[in-house]
Design goal:
Helices cover 35% and strands 32% of the residues. The protein has 392 residues and is of the alpha/beta class.
């Protein structure tokens, strides 16, 4: 049987449409993969702490997870499978490779991307191995709806300390007697090196503002007798997780991260201060863990620290302008999740606002903001001095 030219065209079109709708029907039944866009690992420090380390995932959606726990000889392994999930980009894949190279940790983390385009199977496998009985591994999903961020946090806990805390039915808080010496403050100068941070009017760069103000704060605190540590004193690259790891390892009592803000709207202006949101911890008294209690107290202390420092900054800034006080807010960020002491992040104004950019470029204004931060820290320490100890 022979088809005419037009009949062949009609048959070809019919076949093409059949294949197209068949493919579309299959595609409808195929779930869209969940992407892991970023991974951050934070070490808890080399001195004994409850939280030895955290690994934070930023995801496009919250994945379904199955887990397994095995013991082989003297090695314990936790395996977490994140179904229909894939490492989204080179940055997250590179971080997964970097974690494999960790040799200073008493535990090992392996993150494997397993995907098959032919079978449309995607999954990420997280393996955490450690000496038998040394650690307890847990994970918790988190979501920050106002910023449209979500993901997972894997916690590595010191098993012996957890057992001790459970026996006491209360968290073992590290304290520093203010009668013996003043607390150790870690000042984190945001961005640096190849990471300019926000770039504003007249090419003003956030990293430079942060560095100048951080130096001033460190100098003021040092002259007042405080033990001060800084993430950087020059324009250099410092990985985000290394900042928190340094603070944790040094057993710092307070952590202050200094930043400047930016917006597509040049009219946006003002000062705001952030502390870690308690939403990522279980606050239910009937079901919360010892670590949740410990972390919730840390969040409460961070909020108090944020209130004092924010007030100090606003008082100093008001000398120069009628500032917009954007208040103290809760957030979920890398540096605040990764620290094991009360910690805050300050945003000292918008480099994209003409008036604030001019002020932020002024050394006089920078020094005044530093004085406000310093006075806020001192007020916080004085508040706890009346209670004889500063909790950390």
């Amino acid at each position: 049987m022979r088809y005419t030219y037009y009949e062949r065209i009609v048959l070809a079109l019919a076949l093409a449409m059949t294949l197209f709708y068949s493919w579309k029907a299959c595609a409808r039944g195929r779930p869209t993969p969940i992407y892991i866009e970023e991974i951050q690992h934070h070490r808890g420090g080399f001195t004994p702490t409850v939280e030895v380390g955290t690994c934070m995932f930023y995801c496009t959606e919250l994945p379904h997870i199955t887990s397994a726990h095995t013991i082989k000889g003297e090695t314990e392994e936790y395996i977490f499978t994140l179904h229909n999930t894939i490492l989204a980009n080179e940055k997250s894949a590179r971080k997964a490779q970097d974690l494999k190279k960790l040799i200073t940790e008493p535990y090992a983390i392996s993150i494997e991307n397993e995907s098959n385009n032919n079978t449309n199977i995607y999954q990420v496998t997280v393996r955490i191995t450690h000496p038998k009985g040394m650690f307890s591994i847990q994970y918790k999903p988190w979501e920050q709806k106002n910023r449209n961020k979500k993901g997972l946090i894997f916690y590595v806990y010191n098993q012996n300390l957890l057992d001790m805390l459970r026996g006491k039915h209360e968290p073992m808080l590290r304290t520093v007697s203010l009668h013996e010496h003043l607390p150790r403050i870690f000042i984190d100068s945001g961005h640096g090196g190849s990471d300019t941070g926000a770039v504003g009017i007249n090419n003003i760069q956030e990293k430079d503002i942060c560095l100048y103000i951080s130096r001033d704060v460190a100098t003021m605190l040092y002259e007042a007798g405080y033990d001060v540590l800084v993430s950087r004193m020059t324009d250099c690259d410092v990985p985000l997780d290394e900042r928190t790891s340094r603070a944790n390892s040094a057993h710092a009592d307070l952590f202050i991260s200094i930043h400047a803000n930016a917006s597509l709207n040049s009219a946006s202006h003002g000062i705001e201060t952030f502390c870690l949101s308690p939403s990522i911890f279980n606050t239910n008294k009937d079901t919360c863990t010892v670590h949740d209690i410990y972390r919730c107290k840390q969040v409460k202390q961070s909020k108090t620290l944020a209130d004092y420092v924010h007030k100090g900054i606003c008082c100093e800034a008001s000398i120069f302008q009628n500032i917009a006080d954007r208040g103290v807010k809760y957030t979920i960020s890398h540096v605040l999740v990764g620290t094991t002491m009360p910690s805050i992040l300050v945003e000292l104004g918008f480099v994209t606002n003409p008036d604030e950019a001019r002020l932020l470029a002024s050394r006089e204004y920078q020094y005044s903001l530093a004085r406000g931060i310093t006075r806020g820290i001192q007020a916080y320490c004085s508040f706890y001095k009346n209670q004889h100890t500063i909790p950390a």
